């Protein structure tokens, strides 16, 4: 199966276009407070220029459901990604929802209750200092072999140096990277973006 690639934390049109050229399937835009935060109106302008088949995802952390859906409509997001402790009962699910789950130890997996209304489950490492993405890997073997009710998206500390191994271990539906392809917070590195996608494709061919 071809592993999908999501580049998250896009903050400029230039980075968005470079991400598309590198082969990203999806772009993530962080609307909540973050070093990679981008204004919804800027996102809308970028999304309007994306080519067909490249999806846009709005990333939110503990925001009001009505606000999330209002912004998502403004930006014409294809999906929303919830990174915090949101109450899913407050959402209408008119837009597909990706829910992030934080994992550091086997007991974290045992305590999971994955909502079947979501379109995919994203696994990231747990950090008390980072309610959003952490940029830190977790032990992939914790979830290896587990069958989830929704497609698996792997995040947390992925880079061109380790994404091939991550795919070999888990064979996820998609991989999600932000800091691992940056030269500074919120600014992507063209060479790292291309290298990341190349490593993903090499891993796919190795199966």
Automatic annotation (TrEMBL):
Stretches of the chain forming a coiled coil according to its record: none
Residue ranges of every copy of the N-(5'phosphoribosyl) anthranilate isomerase (PRAI) domain listed in the record: 6-199
Keyword Amino-acid biosynthesis: yes
Reactions catalysed: N-(5-phospho-beta-D-ribosyl)anthranilate = 1-(2-carboxyphenylamino)-1-deoxy-D-ribulose 5-phosphate
Keyword match Protein transport: no
Alphabetical keyword list: Amino-acid biosynthesis, Aromatic amino acid biosynthesis, Isomerase, Tryptophan biosynthesis
Pathway, per record: Amino-acid biosynthesis; L-tryptophan biosynthesis; L-tryptophan from chorismate: step 3/5
Matches recorded under HAMAP family: PRAI
Name used for this protein in its record: N-(5'-phosphoribosyl)anthranilate isomerase
Taxon lineage: Bacteria, Bacillati, Bacillota, Clostridia, Lutisporales
């Amino acid at each position: 199966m071809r592993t999908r690639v999501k580049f998250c934390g896009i903050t400029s049109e230039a980075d968005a276009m470079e991400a598309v050229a590198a082969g990203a399937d999806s772009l993530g835009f962080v609307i909540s407070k973050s070093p990679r935060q981008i204004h919804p109106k800027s996102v809308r302008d970028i999304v309007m220029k994306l080519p067909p088949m490249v999806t846009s995802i709005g990333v939110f952390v503990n925001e009001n459901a009505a606000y999330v859906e209002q912004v998502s409509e403004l930006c014409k997001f294809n999906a929303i990604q919830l990174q915090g402790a949101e109450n899913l009962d407050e959402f209408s699910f008119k837009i597909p929802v990706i829910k992030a789950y934080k994992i550091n130890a086997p007991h974290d997996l045992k305590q999971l209750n994955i909502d079947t209304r979501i379109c995919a489950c994203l696994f990231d490492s747990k950090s008390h200092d980072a309610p959003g993405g952490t940029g830190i890997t977790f032990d992939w073997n914790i979830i290896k072999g587990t069958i989830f009710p929704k497609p698996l998206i792997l995040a947390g500390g992925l880079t061109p140096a380790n994404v091939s191994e991550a795919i070999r271990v888990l064979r996820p539906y998609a991989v999600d990277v932000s800091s691992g392809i940056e030269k500074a917070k919120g600014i992507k590195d063209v060479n790292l973006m291309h290298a990341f996608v190349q490593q993903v494709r090499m891993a796919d061919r190795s199966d």
